[in-house]
User: Which sequence fits this backbone?
């Protein structure tokens, strides 16, 4: 009887370890960066590119949220296009904080159409953190 219990326990432990290993292999690393300065997009995108290489098939979603007064610079479409092109290649989405756009009088139609506007960038960041995203504010 003892031998049967030991074998059964060993089997359950082995099954548990195998299941955990399989779950870890499908886990994606998701990232969100909240920035208040457009020039910081350059090092953020470099970081995303490096993480994509490092993470391999574990690289998931990478989002950047632009908040604060710097949203006024999002209307400089030529300047922004170089960031957006690089972001697209790296699998990064750049979003604008709708609260900041309103506060600083920026018409959402004046920013590049490929940029999504989120209602409240800070709230959106917290919501992603609750979903397990790695987060940093610059």
Assistant:
């Amino acid at each position: 009887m003892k031998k049967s219990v030991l074998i059964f326990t060993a089997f359950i432990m082995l099954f548990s370890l195998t299941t955990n290993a399989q779950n870890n292999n499908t886990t994606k690393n998701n990232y969100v960066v909240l920035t208040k300065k457009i020039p910081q997009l350059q090092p953020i995108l470099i970081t995303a590119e490096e993480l994509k290489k490092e993470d391999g098939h574990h690289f998931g979603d990478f989002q950047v949220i632009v908040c604060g007064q710097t949203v006024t610079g999002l209307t400089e479409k030529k300047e922004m296009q170089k960031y957006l092109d690089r972001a697209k290649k790296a699998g990064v989405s750049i979003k604008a904080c709708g609260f900041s756009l309103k506060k600083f009088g920026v018409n959402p139609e004046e920013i590049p159409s490929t940029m999504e506007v989120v209602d409240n960038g800070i709230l959106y960041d917290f919501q992603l953190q609750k979903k397990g995203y790695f987060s940093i504010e610059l």
Remarks:
- The domain at 28-137 is CATH 3.40.1260.10 (Hypothetical Protein Ychn; Chain: A,).
